[in-house]
Design goal:
With about 325 residues, this protein is α/β, with parallel strands linked by helices. It has three domains: about 5-150, 5'-nuclease (Rossmann fold); about 160-240, Nucleotidyltransferase, domain 5 (2-Layer Sandwich); about 250-320, Nucleotidyltransferase, domain 5, CATH 3.30.420. It contains twelve helices and eleven strands. Strands 3-2-1-4-5-6 form a six-stranded parallel beta sheet. Helix 4 (about 105-110) links the parallel strand 4 (about 90-95) and strand 5 (about 115-120). This is NYN domain-containing protein. Pfam families: NYN, OST-HTH. One of its GO terms (molecular function) is RNA nuclease activity.
Length: about 325
């Protein structure tokens, strides 16, 4: 029997455009027994919800805004959640909001042994994310369900793209180190590390961890991008292991190629690539690999080309350009 889950939405802090991705994502976790949304339905701000509520059989709960500037839906949503906790046989709750006011509610539900799935926009404060068992960023769900919009998206400045990519890279480094630690702990106990264990432990460390943030739909494909990790499949069992037989040169070259591939069609600037290599490999010196210039070293990689935009050089993976 599927787990029974209550879906509670804070209309004051979530847009109606996310409803289909929310429903699709939540269906992975069980049967949605309650579907309620809280807001002031006399407000023009909530008119966009009317059609999607009918299409998805979501019950609107009216809450008048008694005081200007206060979110009147919070208390009603919290009271209903607590009523459901004690009077209904539910295994989990999905709280959809970008508001940190639901942090205590999420903690209380977890204390009572309930699965708590949080969903909110990228602006959602860290305390609410950490209070949930699982937290999913709504923008990622929307991108995942409407991939065709990617080509129509407005251009982002080079500096903005570089900044976003760099911040994600830092998080990826943290995740790789966390997985390595999990594997080493298991090795000390003579245990193998299963893919499922890695996924569940990463969620405990980072409740908002989602491989879609990095452009992948499967955890296995995401882990394969790390040069220090390898996956081994035996029937339906997948184990995550450390590469122990690779030289520093092999690890370096794998890392460089992965960084260039991950950058996509635009590529990665040589300045940024050099910084990432030094951050990962510490005392990297291009002279140790037989080259006098970093540019020449990168040009030596198969399927990699260098483009000059007049300001800086970019390393681009040529196969990304093939149809």
């Amino acid at each position: 029997m599927e787990d029974r889950i209550a879906l509670l939405i804070d209309a004051d802090n979530v847009s109606a455009k996310y409803i289909k991705p929310i429903m699709d994502e939540l269906s992975k976790y069980g049967n949605i027994t309650y579907k309620r949304i809280y807001g002031d339905w006399t407000s023009p701000y909530n008119l966009s919800w009317k059609e999607v509520l009918l299409q998805n059989s979501i019950t609107p709960i009216q809450q008048f805004s008694y005081t200007y500037g206060k979110n009147a839906t919070d208390s009603a949503m919290i009271i209903d959640a607590m009523d459901m906790l004690y009077t209904s046989e539910l295994e989990g709750f999905c709280l959809v909001s970008s508001d940190s006011d639901f942090t205590k509610l999420a903690s209380r539900l977890r204390e009572n042994g309930k699965l708590v799935i949080g969903m909110g926009e990228d602006k959602t404060p860290i305390p609410f994310r950490k209070a949930c068992d699982i937290f999913t960023v709504l923008e990622l769900l929307l991108e995942d369900s409407t991939m065709e919009n990617t080509e129509k998206a407005p251009a982002v400045s080079t500096s903005a793209k570089e900044l976003k990519r760099s911040s994600v890279d830092v998080v990826k480094n943290q995740i790789e180190e966390a997985v390595i630690k999990i594997i080493m702990e298991n090795q000390n106990d003579d245990k193998e590390t299963g893919l499922g264990e890695v996924g569940s432990r990463l969620l405990k460390l980072y409740p908002d961890f989602d491989v879609r943030r990095y452009g992948y739909s499967l955890l296995s494909k995401f882990l394969e991008t790390f040069p220090k990790l390898k996956l081994k499949q035996d029937g339906t069992k997948v184990s995550v292991m450390l590469y122990e037989d690779k030289s520093r040169k092999d690890l370096l070259e794998e890392y460089i190629l992965q960084q260039i591939k991950y950058a996509g069609k635009q590529g990665v600037s040589l300045g940024t690539l050099g910084n990432r290599i030094r951050n990962r490999f510490g005392d990297f010196k291009v002279h140790d690999y037989g080259y006098s210039q970093f540019k020449s070293y990168i040009q030596s990689f198969e399927d990699v080309k260098i483009e000059d935009d007049g300001e800086q050089n970019w390393a681009i993976y040529v196969k990304n350009q093939e149809s």
